[in-house]
Design brief:
Number of helices: 7
CATH class: Alpha Beta
Helix content: 40-55%
CATH topology: Rossmann fold
Shape: globular
Strand order of the largest sheet: 2-7-1-8-9
Number of domains: 1
Length: 188
């Protein structure tokens, strides 16, 4: 089976992972694509469930082997990407793929599969709200929050490259809009 692809991208802290989890539990024929990354796991993250955690060297070897659909060095020394084998595994199991990927990765997938993908950009209501959400997480230092905010401002400039923009000012509304857009796309 060659299924469809749902791409969910957003600046860090905009709520994309929460929205993806809600959509996955909604009964649509979707399976989550587990991204690979070279950063250390955060508290409560599980290898093979949240991410496929690779060393920087392992990640670079996979790049050389052309094992990725897309990959980016999102932060200095921290690589993220989508393994081709992961997408084919999901399709072989009879599902459509849903991605929770960074903005550049989302655009890259959309450009490679324009007819088979729906790209949704989750936008925070404001940069101030985004900073507040990142601080509530308690997983970031002040310096990393500053870096993420600068990156978020940059990434929001790419929102127009996505098929749909969903502003996450109320989670329930953002989940509903995302679900409906995906449902409409899968039934086309």
């Amino acid at each position: 089976m060659h299924g469809k692809m749902i791409i969910i991208s957003a600046p860090s802290g905009a709520g994309k992972t929460t929205i993806v989890k809600e959509v996955l539990s909604s009964g649509l024929n979707l399976m989550f694509s587990i991204s690979a990354c070279s950063r250390a796991p955060r508290k409560n993250e599980i290898d093979g469930k949240d991410y496929c955690f690779l060393s920087t060297k392992e990640f670079q070897i996979k790049i050389e082997e052309d094992a990725f659909i897309e990959w980016e060095e999102v932060y200095s020394g921290n690589y993220y990407g989508t393994l081709k084998s992961e997408v084919h595994r999901i399709w072989d199991e009879g599902h459509h793929v849903i991605f929770d990927v960074d903005v550049k990765g989302g655009i890259s997938i959309k450009n490679k599969f324009p007819d088979d993908s729906l790209a949704i950009f989750i936008q925070p209501p404001s940069v101030e709200e985004l900073e507040k959400r990142l601080r509530i997480r308690s997983t970031e230092t002040d310096e990393s929050i500053k870096t993420r905010i600068e990156k978020a401002e940059y990434e929001m400039g790419f929102a127009a490259d996505f098929d749909i923009i969903v502003v996450n000012d109320r989670l329930d509304v953002a989940v509903d809009k995302t679900y409906q857009a995906i449902k409409d796309f899968l039934t086309r």
